User: Fold this.
Amino acid sequence: MCGIFGIEGYDDAANHVYLGLYALQHRGQESTGIVAWDGRRMPVERGMGHVAEVFSAASLARLRGRRAIGHTRYSTAGSSVIGNAQPIVVRTSMGSIGIVHNGNLTNAASLRRRLEAEGAIFQTTSDTEVILHLMARNPRPEIVESLLSALADIEGAFSLLVVTESCLVAARDSHGFRPLAMAKLGAATCFASESCAFDLLGASSARELDPGEVVVVRESGVTSHQLPATPTPKRCAFEHVYFARPDSVVFGDAVGEVRRRLGAQLAREAPADADVVVPVPDSGLFAAIGYSRESGLPFELGMTRNHYVGRTFIEPRQSIRNFGVKVKLNPVRSIIGGRRVVLIDDSIVRGTTSRKIVRMMREAGAAEVHLRISSPPTAWSCYYGIDTPRRKELIAANYPVDDIRAFVEADTLAYLSLDGLLRSLSGPRESYCTACWTGDYSVAITGEDRRQVELFPVATEEDGTAD
Ligand code: SF4
Assistant:
């Protein structure tokens, strides 16, 4: 998962990208970067860490120009090193090109092997670099034609922004796995993974790109292209469950509203004989509000979160994970003590951290802990850009719900049904990807591409999403 932001036609574009990236920090905390086109050069600034750590007034001052794109990254393909930080910038016979990408390409390994056999020399282990090699090997007088040709060769999930010497391009894969929206900022056009970035800048007239849409923005105007043969969209339902910010509108739905509906549906499907509803912050917050309203049980912030610790789910350094849960979460004893608690979270991945949280609640004096999960059991890996572990590490892939309940040491455990999840979304059921709950993968990943994804150590942490 990553966050991307770009702007065309605004003085000091990089400064606005920098602000946009602040709003998208939750989508990736491992590295960040911005590239700008100043009319002569394409300077780039990248670094490991958060937006606030990487950029300075001096580094932003080096990024002049009216066209810029930026990225917040966590690794789903390629290791966590500065060499894989984005934007990736190259010089080709068509001029300089910079790219940022959210998603995972499912045929990157086989494309890379083919390109290397033809002589390509890769600079990173990121799947995104494949796109640049495809472009460089197929130069066209009009650079957008070269990009469209490259996009026709790649498969899987991509929302991406490309800056060239003549234009800014935004593209979304034909399934529309990952969100990407555009808006106006005065006369300028900007793009963001989520609408919360537009709110920050005061951008207006936001709309999401259609699946398979490619938008080209020049100083002279905006044109839209469509990638061929758009199948049924497969928008990532997990964006609504966990990943997107609750103040964003994603796939036509207000994320916070969806989460409240998930919680209300969960209360209908899995009521609990309890005294209080407590969210695991922040991921269970809105669902807990929905559960509380529907059940009539009081909502209490019975657990606090230290916001200065990164989300363990997207933090790839083992040293952070080892003590992550206790650093991050602490129960409020005065609320928990002696009460029967309904604890709400968005998902259970390995179960290890859910168990730690349940234990924490008991140590804080909870009389009972009834764990309720606002999505179905996560039983399959994601190949489309969310950092879930290998299947064998997913507790729900290997054990029935009652065994999971025993493992996490809850008094009761219940998940939201898939039907309940899909009924909480406003789009047609078939327009969402639900593969991490059903194993129904709409883009197959086979052979060396699958081995590459499964061998790659992207999610070896002890803790998972909810955890
Ligand atoms: Fe989203 Fe799950 Fe599909 Fe991945 S497999 S795109 S996390 S719904």
Q: What stands out?
A: Residues 213 and 439 are 27 Å apart (CA to CA).
